C-alpha cells in the first residue's frame, strides 16, 4: 500500500504544487481489495448497493441522462443573453428618440432664424446659434446619425440571436416525408442568421427523392398513402451557439457535473452497510462546489490529475474491465460524457489556445479513462446519436416549428453562409 501511495503522489503533480492533499488514511480507503467487488451470498448485489448509495445520499440526479432539447438545456444562458439584448436595445432606442426629438427643433430654427445677422468668428458660446454654414453641417450630421441609428436598431430587432426575429422572405416548397408534409426553404439566402431560427434549433435537410418533385401548394404534395415519391430527411446539426454560450455551458454545468460524477463514484464503498460516502468527498468538494473561475488553473489541473490517479487505483485503466455496476452506470449516463467531449472539441476549434490551459489535457485524459473514448469521438457520438435522436423525436411529435428545414443541393448550399455544427 505504501508503494501505491508513493506512486500516486509522484503522478499527481502536473508541474505545480498540489494544495490540500487528502491524508494517507483517505488514500488507504480508496484502495479496495479485489474481493470488494465480488458478489457476496445473502446480500444485495453491488449494482443494487450502488443504487441505494445514490438514493440515500441524493446523488442519483448527477447521473441522469440529458433531457429535453439542446436549446432547452441552454435556457439559463439564453435568458442572460436576452436580458443583455433588451438592455442594449433600450439604450439604443433611448438615444435614437432623444436625437429624433432634436430634429424638428433644428428644422424650426432653420426656417425662422434671421441668418443675415453677422456672427462672430469660430464656434458660438453656449446657447447661441452658430453661422448658417455651421448650422447646416450640424443638421446634416444629425440626419445621418438618425439614419444610421435607425438602420442599426432595425438590424438588432431583425437579427436578435434569441429573441423574436422577423422571418425573411425566401423560396419554399412542400415535400412528402415519412414525418408528413414538410415545408422547406428551397434556396438558402446569403444570410448567416438561419432564416430567423434560433441557436439550438435542429437543421434538417430534405434530400432529393428518386423522382424529385417540388410543390408550392401543400395539398399537391400528396398524402402519406399515395404513390408520390417520398423524400428522405437528414439531420445536419443545430443552429450554432457562439463561443461565449458554449463556454458558459462548459464552465457552469458540464464541467461541474463531470466532476460530481467522478467524485461520487470514487466515494462509493460496496462494503459499507450504511452506504456512507468515503471521506474523499470533502477534500474534493471545491472541485465542483465552487464557481469555475474561483478555482485557479493550477488547482483544477492538480485536482484532475489526482482524481485520475485515484480512479486508476480504484477501478483500473481499462473501461471494459470496470466493475459491472460502473459499466452500466457509464452507459446510462453516457449522454453527459458525450456533451463534455462535444463542448471541449467545439471550444478547441473556435479557440485553439484553450489547449494550452493547464487543466485542459488532464480533463480530457480523465474523460477518456472513464469512457474509453477520446473527446473527439464522444463529440461525434453527441452529434450522431444525442442531437440526432432529439431532432427525430421532435419530428415524430410534429414539433416542426422550431426546426430549420431546407431542400437544396450540396453545391448550392456551399455558396451560402448558413452552416450547421
Model description:
This protein is mainly α and 421 residues long. It folds into two domains: 317 residues, no CATH class; 84 residues. Helix content is 51%, strand content 6%. The strands form two sheets. It has a three-stranded mixed beta sheet. Strands 1-2 form a two-stranded antiparallel sheet. It is elongated, with a radius of gyration of 30 Å.
Task: Describe the structure in brief.
It is built from 15 helices and five strands. The protein has helices at 2-12, 24-30, 46-56, 70-73, 75-112, 132-158, 243-266, 280-284, 286-289, 297-315, 324-332, 334-350, 360-371, 375-396, 410-414; strands at residues 172-177, 180-185, 202-206, 233-238, 404-406.
Give the topology, please.
Elements (H helix, E strand, L loop, with lengths): L1 H11 L11 H7 L15 H11 L13 H4 L1 H38 L19 H27 L13 E6 L2 E6 L16 E5 L26 E6 L4 H24 L13 H5 L1 H4 L7 H19 L8 H9 L1 H17 L9 H12 L3 H22 L7 E3 L3 H5 L7
Parallel strand pairs: 3-5
Antiparallel strand pairs: 1-2, 3-4
